[in-house]
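for ur thesis appendix - histidine kinase. copy paste whatever u need, i formatted it the way the template wanted (i think)
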Amino acid sequence: MLPTSGSTTRKLLLAFGALVALFTAASGFALARLADIHDGSHQLREAGNRVRDALELATAVRDQYAHVAHTIILGNASHVHFHEESRARVEALTRSLREQAQDAEERAWVADIQENGDALERLYRDALLPAVLAKDHATVTAVHSQVLERVSLVQSRAESLAHRFDNSIGSFEAHVGAVEHNSFRWALLLLGGATLFAIGVGIYIGNSVARPVARLSEGAARLAQGDLDTRIPENDPGELGQLAAQFNRMTEALRAHQSQLVQHEKLASVGRLAAGVAHEINNPLGVILGYVRILQRKAEGPLAEDLKVVEEEAVRCQQIVEGLLDLSRPGHGPMEKVSVRETCEDVVARLREAERLGQVEVRVEGAASAWAQPLRLRQVLLNLVRNAAEAAGTGGTVEVRIEPDKDGGASVAISDSGPGVKPEDRRRLFEPFFTTKSTGTGLGLAVSQAIAEAHGGRIEADTGPLGGARFTLRLPPASAEREAMA
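the 3d part is after this line
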């Protein structure tokens, strides 16, 4: 099957096909003209045969008359046999001329020859020979005059045919000469055109194949030297343009991969920094937890509940520190099958209790299950929902939409009605320490993306249905081993 419309392969096939067709046409034309020349030569041979037969007929009639004369001179029937042979020769030549007659006039002349030949035979058999044998000189003289008249008529018609056939030979020679001249001229024209077309095909190949390939080679060389900003024009038609586009996408992917490596290095630096201060952070957190637990033994009612929340949040702080430490250490924590909706509703409830949502309406829709580290997943969702609420502002709306994927994974899309993300900021959202807020460290989205990638997923940012930003957390499907453990 041929390639799609506009492809380089098909264009080359069409160009070579046209070239072959042109050479085939030239060859076919030359063969056709050779056939014309062959037909003309054949017609020349046939015309020559007709001239020969006409002249031989005139000679055969003269031979026939010679035997008539010998019969008169000798006064006997000794030349009857020779006369019959000459008559048979005349008959054979007359039949041949009848078969070779080209038009009505020639056929009429042949018929006249046949008629006079038959009359000559009758005069010899029925009148002249009996008169010679009877010694009737008067009758012999009278019949002889009639015989001479018939012989003259046959010779005249035969010579007229020979002259006519000879003229046709000249016409055929002129036709064959014209065919040869035209054949040479057209063959030269077609072969010259085919040569020029072949040169055009070569130029086309140079422009549409050689140059794009050279640009691809040059781009590959620049890429090998580390120039990740290398781009190749994609305006070439067909497969080479597609190859250039694939090359540009590959270059962009390498650039994105390098950017990710830089980001991971930044996260590793953050992890190493966190490891250096973890002991100092954990000590005051331990003291806080100790005093909270002492107070919990004495507190009752609402105070006990409040202390319980303080304890949980202090524990969460410890877990966040441990999460930062995990960024600088290989390996992952244990995975569990969790309800994504329950986790989202719990995150929203916690933020609402902590008065971090203000007057923002938060809706949670859909449901799905996923394999994840529950605390890590909760940390990512808490960060995304809190950011969305801050972007939406007072009276705004945040939508948390949970959907299972066809392959067994899950996605959580968190949209807000805020101003959205500027296009120039979108590619830097997940860089460590990058933030568009007046307050904050710029680590939230970077850590969230690292956690998502540790789960085998990712976070994507775009414009949501509420007009603001939308951050989509995608979690991959569970492996067969995890499904077996569930």
